[in-house]
Specification:
By secondary structure, the chain is of the alpha/beta class. The chain has a single domain, classed as 3-Layer(aba) Sandwich (Rossmann fold), CATH 3.40.50. It has 8 helices and 9 strands. The radius of gyration is 18 Å and the shape is globular. Bound molecules: NADP nicotinamide-adenine-dinucleotide phosphate. The site of NADP nicotinamide-adenine-dinucleotide phosphate has 31 residues, from helix 1 and strand 2.
Length: 262
């Protein structure tokens, strides 16, 4: 059942220069939405504008860092002034790291929290006054299966995504009376530039995963969840299996992760 159409929706999207965000931007434009998109790489955003053809100037690209409070303010101001408001925020930008916590720096932990947690929560806080006046308003969080199950050598990323899950669960209930949906989608490993952009990670570090989804398919599923107003969606059978196994047999899951993911 479709709860909201994307045609005509005014969307604020983070992390549109590659991977899942690139396909979210192109699919949103194809489905008739108006999009303010951001990420740090200006040249990539230019390519995105060319790729979508920018019909009726429905894509506004603003390069910048979501961890910068001034940039977050600018995103909201631009959406307000140029689109007249916001109906949907998709918090997609994210970074990760691989490697032992003990050997990593405190800066790595803080930077991951700045981008994956504080930028998301504070951008959402700023968007709420506009969302309250929006049409079928919603906030979407691009989370991760690792928001449900911690794995070795990705402790900072798991911690930030777990924190985001707790925050979004609380906010979902706070926002319910005002009709703003909170939609959380958790992809499993996805083919993107994510593992090429790892923070302070030794080139020899490898992320082991089993099966990969394409960024295009993940973006399609995220937009499907938004249309249907889903509460929480874990993508991929492997992701669902990991989450359920972890709930039912946590020690067995620990042993399997130590054997296959460490
Ligand atoms: N790939 C996976 O296996 C996987 C699995 C589960 C969940 N996810 C989640 O999916 C989301 C998208 O990741 P992806 O796989 O599509 O990876 P990706 O190709 O690396 O895309 C990440 C996007 O975030 C942007 N970004 C990163 N830091 C930013 C910052 N400080 N300010 C603004 N933009 C920033 C990047 O653009 P710039 O570099 O140009 O800033 C890029 O557009 C992330 O939240 C990630 O945690 C990914």
């Amino acid at each position: 059942m479709c709860k909201r159409a994307l045609e005509g929706k005014r969307v604020l999207l983070t992390g549109g220069s590659s991977g899942i965000g690139w396909y979210l931007a192109t699919q949103l434009i194809n489905q008739g939405a108006y999009v303010v998109v951001t990420s740090r790489r200006d040249e990539r955003l230019r390519q995105l504008r060319l790729a979508v053809g920018n019909p009726l100037r429905r894509l506004i690209a603003l390069p910048g860092d979501v961890a910068d409070p001034a940039h977050r303010e600018l995103l909201i101001k631009t959406a307000h002034e140029q689109l007249g408001g916001i109906d949907l925020v998709i918090n997609n930008a994210g970074i990760g790291a691989v490697g032992a916590f003990e050997k990593a720096t405190p800066e790595r932990l803080r930077r991951i929290f700045e981008v994956d947690f504080f930028a998301v929560t504070e951008l959402t806080r700023l968007a709420l006054p506009l969302l309250h006046k929006g049409v079928s308003p919603a906030v979407c969080i691009v989370s991760s299966v690792l928001a449900h199950r911690g794995v070795p050598r990705k402790s900072e990323y798991c911690a930030a995504k777990f924190a985001l899950r707790g925050w979004s669960e609380s906010l979902r209930l706070e926002l319910k009376p005002s009709g703003i949906d909170m939609i959380t989608v958790s992809p499993s490993t996805t083919k993107s530039e994510f593992f090429e952009s790892l923070l302070d990670t030794e080139p020899t570090e490898r992320s082991r995963s089993f099966g990969m989804m394409t960024a295009e398919a993940v973006a399609g599923s995220i937009l499907g969840a938004i249309r249907k107003g889903k509460r929480e969606l874990i993508l991929s059978p492997g992701g669902k299996a990991l989450v359920w196994l972890s709930r039912l047999a946590p020690t067995l899951t620990d042993n399997l992760l130590l054997k296959y993911a460490a």
